[in-house]
UniProtKB/TrEMBL annotation:
Taxonomic lineage from the root: Eukaryota, Fungi, Dikarya, Ascomycota, Pezizomycotina
InterPro entries named among the record's database cross-references: NAD(P)-bd_dom_sf (IPR036291), NmrA-like (IPR008030), NmrA/Isoflavone_reductase-like (IPR051609)
Domain NmrA-like: 5-135
Keywords per UniProt: NADP, Oxidoreductase
Name used for this protein in its record: NAD(P)-binding protein
Gene3D superfamilies: NAD(P)-binding Rossmann-like Domain (3.40.50.720)
Length: 279
C-alpha cells in the first residue's frame, strides 16, 4: 500500500532539500504538505506541494491540526529537537497519520553503544524511535514508524535519500516498524581517493595514514573544544568502520529500488563541477 498524502517537517534543514529535490522528480508524484515554522528560511517551490505555516513553538493541538488528512509524516529535523519530535509522534496518533518516517538518517546506527558514547545527540534518535515503538504497540496498527540509515554526502548528491524515503512511502506494509539500511556505496577512503586520482589526469593525491581510533581521539578533543566539523569527522569514521549494512536483515536497497553506484562516476561528476583537485 502506498502512503500518498505526505506531510514534511524540516524542509530547510541540511538534509531536507536533498529529500524534496529527489522526490519532486519521481513519478507518480506524492501529494505533499510542507510544515513551515513562522521564522523558518524560505522554502523553494516544488510541484504538487503546498505550505502549511505552524508556530515556531507548536503545541500538540497546532500539530494535530496541521497533520489531519495526511497518511504520513516525514521528519528531517536536527536530533537536538527531541521534544518537538516526540510531540510530532503524539500528533500523528491524534490526527490519524499512519506512518512517521523518523529523522534517523545517518551513516551509523544511533543505538550502537559506541556511537551513543561518542555522540550524545544520537541518543535522541534512539529515544524517538523507542517512543514511537511504544505508540505503535498501543495503537493496535493505527500508527507506525520507519527510519533509514546510511546516507553520506555522495549519496545525498545522487538523490539516494529521496528515493529511499519514496520506497518507505510506497511499501507501507514491508517497512512497518523497521530501521532500513540503504547505501549507494560501500567503499573505503582509499577507494574514494583512487577514484578521484583516476579522473584527475593521473594526479597523485597526498595520503596521510592514521588509525581510526587515533583519529577519533584527536577529533574528540576538537569536538570538546566546540568544533562541529570534528563531530562530522567522527561520524564519518564510524560510518566507514561500523556500518556493514549488507549483512543486516533489513538491508533494503532492493526494497527501495536502489542500486550500487559507481564511485569513479561520482568522482568524475564532482571534478567536472569544481574543476581541478589540488594535490
Amino acid at each position: 500500500m502506498t502512503l500518498h498524502r505526505v506531510a514534511w517537517i524540516g524542509a530547510t534543514s541540511r538534509i531536507g532539500p536533498a529529500i524534496l529535490d529527489a522526490l519532486a522528480q519521481l513519478s507518480p508524484p506524492f501529494s505533499t504538505t510542507i510544515l513551515v515554522r513562522t521564522t523558518a528560511k524560505p522554502v523553494p517551490s516544488y510541484p504538487n506541494t503546498r505550505l502549511s505555516i505552524i508556530p515556531d513553538f507548536p503545541t500538540l493541538a497546532d500539530l494535530k491540526t496541521a497533520l489531519e488528512g495526511h497518511d504520513a509524516l516525514v521528519c528531517a529535523l536536527h536530533p537536538s529537537t527531541l521534544e518537538l519530535q516526540l510531540r510530532l509522534a503524539d500528533a500523528c496518533v491524534a490526527a490519524g497519520v499512519r506512518r512517521y518516517v523518523l529523522a534517523d538518517y545517518g551513516s551509523v546506527e544511533s543505538d550502537d553503544s559506541v556511537v551513543a558514547e561518542l555522540i550524545s545527540l544520537f541518543r535522541n534518535k534512539t529515544a524517538v524511535r523507542e517512543y514511537c515503538q511504544r505508540l505503535m504497540e498501543e495503537s493496535e496498527g493505527r500508527f507506525s514508524w520507519s527510519s533509514l540509515s546510511r546516507l553520506l554526502g555522495f549519496e545525498l548528491r545522487k538523490g539516494t535519500v529521496g528515493r529511499a524515503v519514496a520506497g518507505v512511502l510506497r511499501k507501507e506494509d514491508e517497512t512497518n516498524g523497521k530501521v532500513l539500511y540503504v547505501q549507494s556505496f560501500f567503499v573505503s577512503q582509499v577507494d574514494i581517493l583512487e577514484a578521484f586520482e583516476a579522473v584527475s589526469s593521473g594526479k597523485t593525491l597526498e595520503r596521510i595514514d592514521i588509525g581510526a581510533d587515533e583519529y577519533i581521539e584527536e577529533m574528540k578533543r576538537e569536538m570538546q573544544a566546540g568544533s562541529y566539523e570534528a563531530l562530522e569527522q567522527i561520524v564519518c569514521v564510524l560510518g566507514l568502520t561500523r556500518a556493514l549494512w549488507e549483512k543486516k536483515p533489513n538491508f533494503a536497497n532492493k526494497l527501495s529500488g536502489l542500486q550500487e553506484e559507481d564511485m569513479r562516476g561520482i568522482a568524475d561528476m564532482i571534478v567536472g563541477e569544481i574543476g581541478e583537485i589540488k594535490s
